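Supplementary Methods, section 5.1.

A reviewer requested that the exact input to the structure prediction be made available. We therefore reproduce it here, unchanged from the version used in the analyses.
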Amino acid sequence: MAANDPDIEKLRPLKKECLLIRFQQVRIPLIIALLQKICLLEHVTAEFEALERIAQNSKGDVRSAINDLQSLGEENHHLSLQDTMMLTSRNKDTSLDETLRRYFSAQSIAETSAMLAFSNIDYDDFLLSVSDNLPKRYPDLTALAKAYNYVSKADLFRGRIGTENWHLLKYFYNDLAHASAVNPHSYKSFTFVTPPIRIITLFWTKGKRTMLDAICGKIGAQCHVSHKTAKHDFVPYIRAMLQKKPKSPLVSWFKFTPEEVDFLIKMGRY
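The structure derived from this sequence is encoded token-by-token as follows.
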């Protein structure tokens, strides 16, 4: 079977029983080389800039690039850059996993920048994913430190962009592009960590956070304090008292359920 995104929820059980073979995104220079070969075999004279635009417009889809070449060059057997102006951009919604593959396999800053400019993925999720996967991409600690330096700068620009200052987006892209091209020729295929570790952690700890929030709500209502104050100033002491005396009068006073008492007694760091 084939799938664009093997990490979606409904495929995860099946993924455990299958051998996963990842097909890497076809890079723009390879598509250009293929188009040049086709032009030679079909006796089509084509400007390099025209083939480059067709390849970039395809966004890694070889079949789309060949179809565009055929439609534009079949009649006159001559193709100029002007002839490609009628091409409409391929609206290809790429997954996070595919974008990561294209990002880490890019061979130049320009290639990465062009890819990011056409991507529709969430900026914050992508930034977290890049950060999680950098140690796999750069085993060399010197290269890894350099890449993380660029990612940290990109993170600063993302914070400054917020929801209004989109004119700073080019700097965000530029620093991410530099991080991908610290050592472009050292790329070796690897399995990506997706979704971001932070999101996975939040998902698996949702039940614990919900329980703690309910406990802090009861403490806040009885002691007239905020959730934050209840969590940091009250919970540690109540936890210590319940560990010594699980049937303390505090249980009935705060109206804790048996599950909440058990959670407080056994809870670790929060």
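Residues 141-161 form the longest helix (21 residues). These observations are discussed further in the main text.
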